[in-house]
Queue: 3 jobs
Job 1
Amino acid sequence: MDKMSREALAVKRAEQAFDHKRRTLGLFCGPIIAILVLITPIQGLTPEAHKLLSIMTLVALWWITEPVPIPVTSLIGPTLAVITGVVAVKDAYAAFANPMIFLFMGGFILAKAMMVHGLDKRFAYWLLSRSWVGSNPKRIFLAVGLAAALCSGWVSNTATAAMMFPICLGLLTSIKDMFANSGREIDLHEYKYATGLMLMTAYSCSIGGVLTPIGTPPNLIMLGFLDTISNIHISFFEWMTWGFIAMVAYFIIAYLVLYRMFPADVDRIEGADSFIRARVAELGSWNRAQKNTLICFIVAVLLWVTPGILSIVYGSGSPVLKMYNHLFPEAVAAMAGALLLFLLPVDFKERKFTLTWKDAMDGIEWGTLILFGGGLAMGGMMYKTGLSKWVGDTISGALGGEPSIFALVAIFSVMALLLSELTSHTAATNMIGPLAITAAVSAGLSPIPVAVAVALSASLGFMLPVSTPPNAIVYASGYIPITKMIHTGVYIDVIGIACVTIPLVIYFVSWVVG
C-alpha cells in the first residue's frame, strides 16, 4: 500500500469515526435542546412562533449532525408543525408544490437527457479539442476548468465531476506515458500538476453551479425564500447576469491560485491532443436522440431568457412582458423543455422517444427536492407565525440596531460558507437563508444582496472532501493530499468571500435594484 493510499485510508477512517459521533450526539441532543427551547419563556413570541422555534432548532441540529437522512429531517419539520398546531396541514405541505420545485424537476430531467445521450461529453471534448488548447499544460488546465464550469451551470455539479474525472485521468496517463518514453518515471500521486488538475476539476464544478438558478440548489432556495418571505421575484435572466459575473470572478481566482501552486514542469504534454481526438472520434456523428435533446434544451433556455430580452426591449412594466410571464414562468419553461423529451421520437415506428420515464426518474434527485420543499415550508411558516420578524429584530439588535448592508452580507456570507464546509450546502442555505432575509428586512434594507451573497457563498465549500460531492470524487483519485485540499481551499474561500461576494453583491446588485 503506497503512501497516498495509507493517507486516504486514515482520513476515511477518521471521517467515519467523526460522523458516527456527530450523528449519535445529534440524535439525542437535538430533541433535548428543542424541548429546552420550548419550555424556556421567550418574550415577544406567540405560542405558535415559540413552538416553531423549537421545531426549527431540532431541524437545524439534525440537518447539521445528520442522525437521519437530511430529506427525512426536512419532512419532520412540517409534520411536527401540524402535530403541534403551529399551522394547518395544507399550509405546512403547500411548499412542496411550489413552482420552484417544478423548475428544479424540469432542470433535472433535461440534465439527465443530456447525460444519457452524451451531450455533456460532446461539449467537454469539443472544448478540449480546440486548436488553442493543443498539448499546452497551462491551456489544458484552463480548458478542463472551463468545460467543468460551463457544464455544471446546467447539469448537476456531481454529475459533471463524475464526467470530467475519467477525462482528467486519461490526460494524466498521457503525462505519465510521455515521461516514461523519455526515460523518466514519475509517481502521479506526488506530481504537482496532477493534484492541481484534479482540484481544478472539482472546484470548477462548484463554481459553475452559480451561473444559473438550476446550477446548484442554494441558488433556487434563496430565490424561493425571496419570493415566499419578501414577495420578491428574481427572473432566470436576472440571476444569470449576477451568476455569470460571480462565476467568472471565482473561476479566475481558482485558476490563478491553483496553477501558481501546482504548475506543470513541462511545456508540452505529448499525447494529450491525440487522446482527446480519439475520445471525440469515439463519440461518432450526432444521432437523432442527441439532436432532439439539444432542441429541448434550447427551447427551455430560450423560454428562460426571453423575459430578460423583453424587459430590455419593452421595459420592465410592459403588458407584453407581463403576459409572457403569466404564460411562461420559469417553472413552465423548464417543464416545457423536459416534457418535449417524451414527445420527440427517436424511432416512431417502435414508439421510442428521446427519454424514457425510467431514465427520467433516475435523473431526478428526489432528496434534493424534498429538502428544498422542507426549507421553503419552514421559511414560509416563520413568516406566517411572526417568528421571522422576531429573529430579524433580534439579529438587528445584536448588530447595533441598524446594521449596514456590508455587515449583513459579510456575516451571513461567512456563516453560509462555514456551514457548507461541514454539512450539505443545501441544508446550510435552508438554515441561513431565512435568517439573512429577515434580518435585512428588519433593518429596513433590501434583502436581495444578502440573499444572493448567501447563495454564492454556500457554493464555496473547497476545503474538505466532505464539503461537496465533486471534492469527494476527485479526492478518491489519491492524487490530492488532504493538506493540499485544505490549504488551497482556505485560500480560495477567503479570497472569494473578501474580493468577490461582498463587493459584487453590494455594489452590483444594489445598482441593479436601483
Job 2
Amino acid sequence: MFKKILIANRGEIACRVIKTARRMGIATVAVFSEADRFSRHVDLADEGVCIGPAPSKESYLSMDKIIAACKETGAEAVHPGYGFLSENPEFCARLEAAGIVFIGPKAHAMRAMGDKIASKKLAMAAKVSTIPGYTDVIEDVESAVKIAAGIGYPVMIKASAGGGGKGLRVAGNEAEAREGFQACRREAKSSFGDDRVFIEKFIEEPRHIEIQVLGDAHGNLVYLWERECSLQRRHQKVVEEAPSSFLDEATRRAMGEQAVALARAVQYQSAGTVEFVVGRDRSFYFLEMNTRLQVEHPVTELITGLDLVEQMILVAAGEKLAFAQKDIELKGWAMECRINAEDPFRNFLPSIGRLVKYQPPAEVPNQVRVDTGVFEGGEISMYYDPMIAKLIVHGATREQAIARMRDALNAFVIRGVSTNIAFQSALMQNPRFVSGDFNTGLIAEEYPDGFNAGDVPHDDPAMLIVVAAAIHRSYLERNASISGQMPGHEYVPEDGFVVLLHDEQHAVVATQVAGGFDVAYRAESFAVRSSWQFGQALYQGTLDNKPFCMQIERIGLRYRLHHWGTQADVMVLSAHAAALQALMPRKAAPDLSRFLLSPMPGLLTVIAVVPGQEVKAGEKLAVIEAMKMENVLKADQDCVVAKILANPGESLAVDQAIIEFEKMG
C-alpha cells in the first residue's frame, strides 16, 4: 500500500480524498495555487506545495509542477479528483514514466473513451445500445443535412470533443440542421481546437441515468447500480439521486451489464461512469464514459456502503476487488444537491466574496453528509468553479430522502455570498420531481423565464407571521431586561403588535409562557416553543408541537426569514407605528438605465466601446470573467457611449458602474 499520495486538485474533492487517505493511514500532499494558500484542503493535508499563481493553467493544470511536487515530497501516487487533469491521458502517461502511480484508469482507456466518436464505435463493437446516428467525420453542411434527414428529425448535433453543453444543438428541420452544424463546428473549434461533429437521433423526454463501474487490474469488473442525473440546468447537473425512480429491475440489470461490457472492452481499471440517455419507453442508449470519479459519487457510496475513493486507491495499489457483483447491496435512497455560490434570482450569476457565516447542517451517519472545501471566514474566489459544498442525504425511501433534504437545506446557513439553496429547496417541492415523473427538461419547462421569489411561495404564510411575532417578543423581553428599569417606571413589553409581510398588515398578540410564546392570530392560537438564543442564525423549536427550523437575520428594523426556499422580509411594529408606517411615502428607485452595471463580481477583461460611439442593441459592450467563465455584456437598446467608468484589469463589485450612456429620448 502507498505511504504517501498527492492530490492534484483543490476544494471539496481534495478534502474528500484526504479524509479517506487519512482513514487508511496514508499521508497526503496538497498542491495549491497562490489564491488557495489558506484553503481548507491545504490545512487538512499533511504537507502542502505551492504550484503557482491563481489561474488554473499556471497551477492546477501544470503537469510539470505537479510531477515536481511529487518528487519533492516523495509522493508515490497521485489522485486527480475530477476536473483539471483527471481525464488527461498525457498526465497519466507522464506520471507512469516518472515512476508515479496514477490513481485512476490507464491512459489507453482514457484515450479510447475521451473521444465521443471513437467511444461510440467501441460501444457498438461491445454490443452496447447506441443512439441511431452517424459517427464518421461529417465534411460539410450538405452532408450534415442529408445525414440528419436519413436519421429522422429531431436530431442532435454534437462536437466530438465537446462537454459542458458547448458544441451542441438540437435541430427539428433542415434549416435548423444547417445552422446548428455550422454553429457547432465554430464552437468546437473555438473551445476545444477540434471542429469534428457528429449527428444522432434526439431522444424525446430523455432522462440522464448513469452506471457506476469499478474494475481492478485482474480483470474483475462490477457495476454499483445507477444514478439519476436528469435535473439539469443548461446541461449542468443540479440534483442527483440513486437509484432512479424510473428504472425497473430488468432495465437496471441490462444497463449495468452493458456498462461492464464497455468497461471490459477497454480493460478498465478504477472507478468510472458510463452515461446513458433513457427514453420514455425505457429504451436506453450510450452517451459517453467518464474515466474519473464523478462529482455525484457520494450517492452511490450511501446506497452501497462502499468508499469509492478507497476502492480507487486499493485498485491502483494492485489489489483485487474484495467483492463480486452478487455481493453488492442496494440499500435505501440517496440524494445530492450541489450548493453553489451563485444568485438564482439574478439568472444564476456567480457570487464571490467572504463567507461571513458558514454553518452547514449537522452530519448524521447514513442520513446527512456534507462534502465541502470551505470554512467560515474563507473566500469564494473568482478563479475557480462556484461549488461551496455537496449536501447528501440518505433515507429508507425516496420520500424520506426528499424530506431529509428539505430539512437539511433549511438548516444550511451561508452568509456573505449568494447561493442556490432557495432554488434547490424549490426543486425539492416541485410536484413533478416529488412524483418522479420528470426528465432533463424539467428546469427549463418549469422556470422558462428564470427563477424568482414567486417560484417559492410559502405554503403556510401564517407560520412566518407567528414566528416573526415570537422572535420580536423575545427582543422586547431582552430590551426590557437590560434597559435600566427605574422603580415605579418599569417598562413592560406590550403583547399586541402588527406584523408587516408582503406589504400587508397582520394583527397579532404574543404572550410569553414557559419555554416560548402563545401567539394569537386570526382567532387562532399558536404555540411557539424554542430555546433560541440571540445571535443564533437558526430558530429551532416546535410550532403546535411540530418541529421546525427557520433561518433568521436581523437587518435594521426588519427580520429576514428563510424557510423551505422562501425568503421573507418582515417588520413587527406597535399598532401606532404601523399606522404611521402606512402613511410613509415610498422612495422612488434611482434611474440607472443610463449605466451599464456589473451583474456580478469579477474581472473586467474587455471594454469593447469608446466614448462617443453609437451602439446598436445586441452589440458587445464589455466582458467580465468570473469562475472560469467569460460573461459578455451586450446593449439592450440603441445608445451612445458617454463615459467609460472602469478599466480592463479592474476587479468589479456587483452593480458597479462600467459605462455611462448619453440620455436617450
Job 3
Amino acid sequence: MKNIWFLRLIIACLFVSCAHNKKKEESNLKDSRPNILWITIEDWSPDLSCYGTKGISTPNVDKLASEGIRYENAFTTSPVCSTSRSAMMTGFYQNYIGANQHRSHDKKPLPFGIKPIPHLLKEAGYYTSIMSWKTDCNFIPNTRGELFTDTSDYTKDGKIGWRNREKGQPFFARVTFGGTHRSWRRDPENPIDIKDVEIPPYYVDNEFIRRDWANGLEQMQLVDRQIGELLQKLEDDGLADNTIVFFIGDHGRCHIRGKQFLYDGGIHIPMIMKYPGKVKPNQVNNNMVMSIDICATILEAAGVTPNVALHGKSLFSKDVKNRKYVFAARDKMDETHDAIRAIRSKEFKLIHNLMPERPWCQLNQYKESAYPVLAEMNILNLKGKLNPVQAAFFAPTKPEFELFDLSKDPFEINNVANNSEYADIKLNLLSELNNWRENVINDKGVSDEFRALGIFPDLCPTATVGEWVILNQDKYDFNKYGWPAWYPTRTLEEWEKARAIWEPYVLRSATDEFYEPVISFTKNKNKKKKK
C-alpha cells in the first residue's frame, strides 16, 4: 500500500513539473516587446476636428488622440510623398541619403551602411508587414516585398498582416490610407456646408474655392471611418493594450500653396501617438517634433540600436524636449525643378529659395491635372482680381529669402526678411540653416545643369507649357533638365477652359456621381473612377 501511494506521489509531481515546464515554454514563446502599428494618411495637414479645424468631424482619429498624445508642432522633412517617405523609412533626412529628388529615375542603394527601419526590426525578431500598396522610396530596396516580410494589402482586400505572424511574435505594421490624395470623394453621410469651413487669406473666398476645400474635408471624414475600422480590428484581436499606434500625415495638404512647398501648409502635419502603459491619455504636446522621430521612438521601444545613429530622435528624449528648430528641404518635384530650404522655430520660419529666378507656379503637370483651385486663382490673377496677398504666389520670380513672424502671421503672408527689426533673427536662423545644410545633410546645392541654363527657348511658343513639353519630349531630356520654367503656364483662355471643365466636378452634390475630368496637356490618365 505504501508503494502505491509513493508511486502516486511521484506521478503527481511529474504531472505538476510537466505542466510548469509547458507553461514556462509558452511564456518563453511570448515576446513582451510592444507591437507597432504606423498609420499614414496622404497629403494632409492637421485639418482634423481634434486640432480645431472648422467644419470637419473625425471622431475616430479624435478618439485615438484622447487615448495618447497629440503633437501640435509636428513637421515632415519634405513636402511631397516619395522624399518624405524615404526619410520616414530610414530615420534620416532625405538629402543625406540621396533620396531628395521626387520621382528619381536612377534609384541607388542606401549609403553609409544605413538600413530601412523594417529591416532593423526584422533582424530584431519583429514580424514586418506593409498593409497597403505604397512604399514610394527613392532608394534601393524600394518594393513592398524587399522592405517587408508580409505584403497582405488591407486597403485592397481587407487582409490583416499581423495575423500571419508566429504566436507571441511582436509585429511592426505600416498602412497608408490614400483617400486624402487628390482626387476626393464626397461624404453623403455627413456633407459639409461651405459656410462652415475656413479659407486661408491667400485664397479668394468664393463658392468654388470653399466647395473644393470642403470636398477635401469630406474625403478625410471617409478616411477617418477606415481608420476606425482598422483600430477596431486591433481591439477585436486583443492586441490594443500592447500595441503602440502612430498616426501621421506624410506631408501637408494638397492645395496650391501646400504640398511641394515649405510653408506650414506643406510641412505641418498631424501626429498622434498612443502607447499603452507608457503614455497617459489626453495629452497635448508642444515640442518641435519631426516625422523621422517616430523611427527613433520605434527602435527604442523594440530595444534596437542601429549601427548608424539616426537623424530622428526618440519622442521621449531630451533632444526632442530641448529642440529649438526643425528643418525641411524641397528639390525636384516630378520634372519641376526647384530647390528650397527652410528652418522653423516655434516663433519664426526662414525660407531660402535657392532658385529665386523661378516662379512658384511654374509647370507641374500633376498639379494642373488635379487642382481645380489652380485654374480659378490663375484666372483671377490674369484678370487682375487678386489682392496683393493672394497675387504674391503668382509672381514670375521669388525672393531669395522669406521670413515669417509666426505668432503674428500664422498664414505666412507677410515676408519680413528685409525688415531691419528682424535682421538679427534672420542672421541667426540663416546661420543655423547653413550649418544644417553643410554639416548634417551634406547639401549639394543647385548645379547649372539642374537650372537648365541655356537649354530652352526664351519664351513658350504654344498656348500652354504642357503642350510644348508634349510636342518636344523627344527633343529634350526632361529627366535631366526638368520642364521649362516659362510663366504663366497657360493663357487666360486656356485657364478658363480648364476652369469650365472643373466646375461641375467641384460643385457636384454629395450624392452625384462624376468622373474626375481630364485637363488638356497634363498627361492625366482618366481611370474612369467615379467620385
